[in-house]
Design goal:
12 helices, about 325 residues, five-stranded mixed beta sheet, two-stranded antiparallel ribbon, alpha/beta, 9 strands
Length: about 325
């Protein structure tokens, strides 16, 4: 909310040009800026621009205030379920409303009581948990967002964001992933009922042979064969090049975000043995591993787009390689 007020004050200050000129407290820079604004009124261009900006900023504040009031009324009606609230005026809210409310509150310096925000977080459906974490990461508030996770959470969904499949965004994707995994590692032993973690990397990574190797190495083989020395790696960008080939075209692949995720999960396994299932969503495939009788096994590989993959894998046996075909209906030989 403070950021919205800052925008409003910026546009509003334009119309105080004359006051700045004659205010004895104004600095030379402020007086010069005031004179420029006063003269610019004659052109009508800047006044129109700032006027429109002021109205937009004011509208955003009014919408945010209205949203916060609606969500607050929903929380005050603790006995009302989400379904009932959605039909209750004026406290009607959607999952997107809850996400927006939490992101606004995280940016407000007038910090809400964390229990209040955690109550809102509990009402998020699993896919919208991921959407909330992605939105918070964009605002630089991912750590604060993860502090809202209730200690009795049974399942968590994280999404690092969308449209990060290009080299220019690789470092950003890695930075978000590292922050997320560091914070999760710090909190993980507090979640006594957590069974499943889903991490959505579909906005930054493809499932390739190199990705498959790293997942097998860090998540499966190293844990099953070296529990006493596990985990043993730190998060750091390795700069490993990887490419996803489809229909004769090569797409760069964010292997660093993948390795950071697998190492982060490895640390979580080490600290919390209650976790029994993990899922990682890639742009072209959904990967699932389960802990069965003390060891981790890949149990599901569901392909998207043109990836041919398998589900219902045989425990104790290495999964088959993933073959990529340009034609959607192609079959492995």
């Amino acid at each position: 909310m403070n950021s919205l007020n800052s925008d409003l004050n910026f546009y509003k200050s334009y119309f105080n040009g004359v006051n700045e000129i004659f205010d004895f407290n104004s600095s030379a820079k402020e007086v010069a800026w005031g004179m420029l604004k006063a003269v610019s009124v004659l052109t009508l261009v800047l006044p129109v621009i700032f006027g429109v900006g002021y109205l937009i900023a004011k509208s955003r504040i009014e919408n945010a205030t209205n949203l916060c009031n609606r969500v607050t009324k929903m929380i005050e009606n603790q006995g009302i379920t989400i379904e009932k609230v959605q039909n209750y005026q004026p406290a009607q809210v959607t999952q997107d409303d809850l996400v927006e409310f939490l992101v606004i509150k995280l940016q407000d310096e007038r910090t809400e009581k964390i229990d209040h925000l955690r109550t809102v977080f509990k009402k998020l459906e699993l896919p919208f948990q991921g959407k909330f974490f992605a939105a918070a990461a964009e605002k630089g508030k991912l750590v604060e967002a993860m502090k809202l996770i209730p200690k009795d959470a049974k399942e968590l969904v994280f999404n690092i964001g969308e449209k990060l499949l290009f080299y220019g965004n690789f470092e950003k994707a890695y930075g978000i992933t590292k922050t997320m995994m560091d914070e999760l590692k710090n909190q993980i032993n507090e979640f006594t009922e957590l069974k499943k973690i889903t991490i959505d990397l579909s906005g930054s990574s493809y499932y390739t042979e190199k990705v498959e190797w790293h997942i097998n190495h860090y998540l499966i083989e190293s844990y099953n064969n070296n529990k006493e020395k596990y985990p043993y790696e730190k998060f750091e960008m390795k700069g490993i090049e990887d490419f996803y080939e489809r229909s004769g075209m090569l797409s760069p692949n964010n292997i660093d975000a993948v390795i950071c995720t697998t190492l982060g999960l490895a640390n979580c396994f080490y600290k919390n043995d209650k976790i029994t299932i993990v899922t990682i969503n890639f742009e072209n495939l959904v990967f699932t591993a389960e802990k069965i009788e003390g060891n981790w096994h890949i149990t599901e590989l569901i392909g998207r787009l043109n990836a041919i993959s398998w589900s219902g894998l045989v425990l104790g046996k290495a999964p088959p390689n993933i073959f990529l075909y340009p034609q959607e209906n192609s079959k492995p030989s």
